[in-house]
Design a protein that fits this description.
Layout lengths: L8 H11 L7 E2 L4 E2 L2 H17 L2 E4 L4 E4 L2 H6 L7 E9 L5 E7 L13 E8 L5 H11 L5 E8 L5 E8 L2 H11 L3 E2 L2 E2 L1 E4 L3 H5 L18
Antiparallel strand pairs: 1-2, 3-4, 3-5, 5-6, 7-9, 7-12, 8-9, 10-11
């Protein structure tokens, strides 16, 4: 299995074509030729067929299941896997099977970070899910009103992070202050106010400083 961060879909398909045994992947129509058009179609049809056959593995830190038919996917609607893995049916020039591993989007872009959002890091990966984060906030900061929680894990690491959107600025300030350095599982959680893209543009220069003693509380 080869792992590669390949950017947009076109470059992914091109990379796959170069990895696999040589085939004629160009789709010829009456009007033009579509590069890798046959490969696009093959990959899509193969994926949906494997879903129907229960041969796509869905994985998260909580559990792993084989995604089967649509009814079972709906029955597991609350389960949001971080990875999907399946055999493409293609082989390399050395006759090695090529597997496709699809990861969920690993982070919010700055454009997606909204106002009144708290950033949490160093979260014990066993507790890095919406249910546990909401319970943690309710227990340690009962006045905080949570609107949305987005949890993320770091590949091959025991920690994760999260963005928690609050209903208002008051809830945000209370949560950031009261949750910082609190224990969640086996880790101490660190909190801060998330910076939106608009806010970032208005900062002429900024630097991130870590490992500051807890006794230092002012600029």
């Amino acid at each position: 299995m080869v792992q590669q961060n390949m950017g947009d879909l076109k470059s992914k398909v091109r990379y796959l074509a170069n990895m696999a045994e040589e085939e004629r992947w160009t789709l010829h129509t009456e009007k033009n030729a579509i590069p890798f058009g046959i490969l696009y179609s093959y990959i899509a049809q193969t994926f949906f067929r494997l879903v129907e056959e229960g041969k796509v593995l869905a994985y998260s830190h909580e559990k792993q299941i084989a995604i089967k038919k649509e009814a079972e996917v709906k029955a597991n609607a609350e389960y949001e896997p971080t990875l999907l893995a399946w055999n493409t049916g293609l082989v390399t020039h050395l006759s090695q099977d090529i597997y496709c591993v699809m990861a969920r989007k690993s982070f919010l872009t700055r454009e997606e970070v909204r106002e009144n959002t708290m950033y949490m890091r160093n979260i014990d990966v066993k507790h890095s899910n919406e249910t546990n984060i909401r319970s943690f906030i309710t227990k340690n900061c009962p006045t905080a009103q949570v609107k949305r929680v987005e949890c993320y894990s770091i590949p091959n690491q025991t920690i994760g992070y999260a963005y928690v959107e609050m209903e208002n600025e008051k809830s945000l300030d209370a949560a950031v202050q009261q949750l910082h350095n609190k224990q969640l599982g086996e880790k101490q959680v660190y909190t801060a106010t998330a910076i939106t893209e608009t806010q970032r543009r208005n900062i002429p220069f900024s630097a991130y400083i870590d490992n500051i003693p807890s006794s230092v509380t002012t600029k």
